């Protein structure tokens, strides 16, 4: 008897649980692939703009270049764009208060960074949920299937291993599918979360570096 035969011979509830777990597995793998590609692209963008930023002769020129494609910028490009724009606006309003301009730029960059991180972290928490509940859902299917097997055995006068084995095997399939769903989801959740954390650190470092540059520029202009 193969797995397909065990599925068809299982009770309706156990079949439903198996299908639910398989659906969760498909969803988790879709998230793993999609988020993996998204995070790789985000890291490439960080590295690319980092080279562009440090090789730029003038921040105003870099800002003007980004302003031409502002609808398509993201990541550190967006953090730089919003921070530099807010700093320039506030500094022009009151050149005698550079600290206020720096605080405004900090707020603008933090907001942009949080929005970018929300986009990167999207659906990853669902992997953690799938990974944590799938074994228990599968175990519920197993318990239900074994319970039905023993109830059926109670209706016969003489029970044999040959009678009880198929029912138990059907039930254990649910646990196997639950583990098959949970293990990749848990591993991917940990790895993707670490990658998001690494990109968050890149964003935070860039924000601090840009603020330091803006502060030096503000001091130099006042002198």
From TrEMBL:
UniProt-listed Pfam families: MotA_ExbB (PF01618)
Membrane topology: Multi-pass membrane protein
Main location: membrane
Residues in MotA/TolQ/ExbB proton channel domain copies: 79-203
Assembly notes: The Tol-Pal system is composed of five core proteins: the inner membrane proteins TolA, TolQ and TolR, the periplasmic protein TolB and the outer membrane protein Pal. They form a network linking the inner and outer membranes and the peptidoglycan layer.
Family assignment from sequence similarity: Belongs to the ExbB/TolQ family.
Name used for this protein in its record: Tol-Pal system protein TolQ
Gene it is expressed from: tolQ
């Amino acid at each position: 008897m193969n797995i397909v035969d065990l599925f068809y011979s299982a009770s309706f509830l156990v079949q439903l649980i198996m299908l639910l777990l398989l659906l969760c597995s498909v969803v988790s793998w879709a998230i793993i692939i999609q988020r993996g590609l998204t995070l790789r692209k985000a890291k490439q963008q960080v590295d690319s703009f980092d080279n562009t930023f440090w090789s730029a002769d003038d921040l105003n020129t870099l800002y003007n270049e980004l302003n031409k494609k502002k609808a398509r910028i993201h990541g550190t490009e967006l953090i730089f764009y919003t921070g530099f724009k807010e700093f320039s606006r506030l500094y022009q309003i009151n050149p005698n208060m550079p600290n206020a301009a720096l605080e405004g730029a900090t707020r603008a960059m933090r907001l942009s960074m949080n929005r970018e991180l929300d986009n990167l972290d999207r659906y990853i928490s669902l992997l953690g949920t799938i990974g944590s509940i799938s074994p228990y859902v599968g175990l519920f299917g197993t318990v239900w299937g074994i319970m039905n097997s023993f109830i059926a055995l109670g209706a016969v006068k003489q029970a044999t291993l040959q009678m009880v084995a198929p029912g138990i095997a059907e039930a254990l399939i649910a646990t196997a599918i639950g583990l098959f769903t949970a293990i990749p989801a848990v591993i991917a959740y940990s790895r993707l979360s670490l990658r998001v954390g690494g990109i968050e650190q890149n964003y935070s470092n860039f924000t601090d570096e840009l603020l330091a540059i803006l502060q030096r520029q503000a001091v130099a202009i006042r002198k």
